[in-house]
Structure formats: structure tokens, C-alpha cells
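Q: C-alpha cells for this one, please.
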Amino acid sequence: MNIENETTFWSETLKIQKKQFMKPYIKDSLFKKINRGSFGHGTCTIRVGNAKVAKETLMGLRVIQDHFGP
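A: Here is the predicted structure, written as C-alpha cells:
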């Protein structure tokens, strides 16, 4: 996984400047096939320092969970 390429992907996808990203962590995995298809860019953890934005983000995640969850 190319850290620079993936940081660029997440920066453009989330519309967040690269300088706001922390040092990435890449976990070794025995399942190399998981890096294909929709998982090709890994996952992203977001920290929000604004209560209003954090609440809106959590509400959006709940909508996704309700729609796609079990």
C-alpha cells in the first residue's frame, strides 16, 4: 500500500487537507485479497474537534447503520 497515494485518496474523498492527517498505520494481514475491490484504500479513522460536526457525523453513521446493518 502506497501511503502517499492513499492519503491523497482519503484527502480528496473527505475534502480534508493532507496536513490534517496523522501518521498512518498499516496493519500486516495474511489476507492479501482483502486489498482488492472496494477495500483497496483501507479504512480511515476520523477525529472531530467540533461538537456540532461530531454530532452530525454520528447521526449520518447511524443512518448508514440503520440502512445497511443487521
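A few notes: DSSP finds two helices and no strands in the chain. Helices lie at 3-14, 51-68.
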